[in-house]
Automatic annotation (TrEMBL):
The keyword Oxidoreductase belongs to this UniProt entry's keyword annotation: yes
GO CC terms of this entry: cytoplasm
SUPFAM superfamilies: 6-phosphogluconate dehydrogenase C-terminal domain-like, NAD(P)-binding Rossmann-fold domains
Reactions mediated catalytically: (R)-pantoate + NADP(+) = 2-dehydropantoate + NADPH + H(+)
Cited Gene3D superfamilies: N-(1-d-carboxylethyl)-l-norvaline Dehydrogenase, domain 2, NAD(P)-binding Rossmann-like Domain
Listed pathway(s): Cofactor biosynthesis; (R)-pantothenate biosynthesis; (R)-pantoate from 3-methyl-2-oxobutanoate: step 2/2
Origin species: Neoroseomonas eburnea
Protein name as it appears in the record: 2-dehydropantoate 2-reductase
Domain Ketopantoate reductase C-terminal: 179-302
GO biological process, one term: pantothenate biosynthetic process
Annotated function: Catalyzes the NADPH-dependent reduction of ketopantoate into pantoic acid.
Amino acid sequence: MRVLVLGAGALGGYFGGRLAEAGTAEVAFMVRPARRAVLHRDGLRIESPFGAWEGRVATLTAAEAKPGWDVILLSCKAYDLEDAIGAIRPAVDARTAVLPVLNGLSHLDRLAAEFGAARLLGGLAKIQATLAPDGTVRQLNDWRWLTFGERDGAMSDRVRALEAAFAPARGVVAQAVPDVMARMWEKLVHLGTSAIGTVLMRANVGEIVRSPGGGAFLLRLLERNLAIAAAAGHPVRDGFLDEYRAVFGDPRSAYATSMLRDLESGARIEADHILGFLLERARRAGLPDELHEAAYLHAKAYEQRRDAGRLPAC
Ligand SMILES: NC(=O)C1=CN([C@@H]2O[C@H](COP(=O)(O)OP(=O)(O)OC[C@H]3O[C@@H](n4cnc5c(N)ncnc54)[C@H](OP(=O)(O)O)[C@@H]3O)[C@@H](O)[C@H]2O)C=CC1
Ligand SMILES: CC(C)(CO)C(=O)C(=O)O
């Protein structure tokens, strides 16, 4: 199996690196020149509770893209989607499945329009990882789930083959599922709650829960996001609520989101793709929207300040 990973950031670097380490697929990374220079100089370095890895990896730039890939794992941020589509376009052919692992949902319509619905898989990652300033990919806790599937629910040869390729990879639980759209909505309920909570409060889950009313605030957010998913035709599975009530009720939790990490380091954030999407869905369903509105406004005001160069020094 030949797998092209677009982006060697937190997710692309982690999952692509683990697959390269396992040696069960031919893996290459499509990267931009600055990242390529670091990978050429240092190799790909992963730090993880499941063991560090360092290795030389194949890289190519958009100008060098050629067809012949079974899977393209798309791991850019949503604000880079158009650029990434342009970069992978010459690499996509009749046999290629495109597997995006971005958070959110709205990228799916765009990718299906570009590459055809039949080529596009659904996918999500439950992991906490970051690309450190020195180029190291750092996994921050033991979350390690990569979930994907055909959007029509078929358990096709291609999703089974990808699951098999990942099976020996350490620090990864990769699963092909027959209900990937439901899983993506569940991920959005989870992320919507943690991202809105941590970004609005500029604090991790434990810090919020230990503050007066913080636990109730997170649970109210969780319920609002559950209602948004249900109104969109995707009620969560049994057990989901109990699992995430515990996640969002733990006073000792150090759980923070990639959006909070990005915001605290002055980076770009996926405000429209995640927060704007949820706000629009709350309004469309006639649900209370003031928490989503505040989070979206907060993120957009941050973008204004960032664009104007007025963020405090990090
Ligand atoms: N980090 C996390 O813990 C989690 C993140 N997610 C989601 O996964 C997605 C990816 O996030 P994450 O991995 O953190 O992001 P990162 O910013 O760490 O990595 C994205 C990478 O994509 C690269 N990229 C973007 N456009 C192109 C292009 N045209 N050609 C080549 N490379 C490109 C960037 O390269 P360059 O360096 O050149 O800018 C960057 O290194 C997001 O939607 C995020 O919300 C989901 C679960 C957890
Ligand atoms: C919700 C979480 C932590 C789970 O993977 C995530 O997706 C993120 O931080 O972007």
